[in-house]
Every structure is written in structure tokens, then in C-alpha cells.
Amino acid sequence: MRTDNGYRCYSPDCVARVRLIRAALSIGFTLDELAKILKIRDAGGAPCHKVRDLAISKLAGLEQHIRQLALLRDQLRNLLKSWDRLLEETPQHQPAGLLEMLAAAPAKARILPAHLYAAVTRETRR
């Protein structure tokens, strides 16, 4: 249904559903997860325990991500300290080899998956 000026009119139920979806998306639920939950609700079910279990899973993933980011922060702090010492010892206008030093570090020294490094880099460019 549309108003005289062409705007769509939505029922209060539709508006409430969109608000519910937006709120769930804002805390990390995916559209696929919500589709399954809403299908159960629309069929008369009560997926409350499923919703709670999904939220617990989201929280666990978030806490793991925070721990990984804290490790990355500590790793970068230590790297910067090493680079600062190296720069103090390197004559002016001479290459210090900062990136080479980073590349020479054993793979196990890079403690996080590459996608986390990329995510941090994208965030700092904004």
C-alpha cells in the first residue's frame, strides 16, 4: 500500500520485524541465522534457547578476537621498541632494514592469522 505521495506504508508488525532484524545484526547475528530463527518463530515455535546459544557463541568469538588483538598490540609494541633501538644505531640516511627484520622473523613469531593483521591495517586507514 502507498500514500498519496508514493511512500510505502508498512504495518506495525513489519516495522517491528525490521527493528528486530537490525538489532540482531548489530550484535553479530547473520542474515542466515536470523532467517532460520524467524522461520521457527513464524511457524509458532519459540527459538529462545537457540538465540541464546548463538549469542553465547558470538560472545566467545568476540572474546577470542579481543585476545588475539591484545596479542597483536603487544607484538607491535615490542617490534616498535626493537625498531627504535635499531634506528638509534643506524647512521642517518642509511637503511635500517626494518621490514627486512620483520620478514626475517620466524613464522611462529607472527602469532596471529594474516586476516587479523589486514583487518587492523584497514581500520587504521579510515
Compact overview of the structure:
The chain has five helices and no strands. With 126 residues, it is mostly helical.
List the helices and strands and how they pair.
Blueprint: H1 12-26, H2 31-42, H3 48-89, H4 98-104, H5 114-125
List key phrases describing it.
single chain; 126 residues; mainly alpha; 5 helices; 70% helix; elongated
How far apart, in Å, are the first and last alpha carbons?
A: 41 Å
Helix content: 55-70%
Q: How big is the Rg? A: 25 Å
Order of helices and strands: HHHHH
Describe it for me?
With 126 residues, this protein is an all-alpha fold. The chain folds into 2 domains: 1-46; 65-126, no CATH class. It has helices at 12-26, 31-42, 48-89, 98-104, 114-125. The longest helix is centred in the middle third of the chain and has 42 residues, at 48-89. It is elongated, with a radius of gyration of 25 Å.
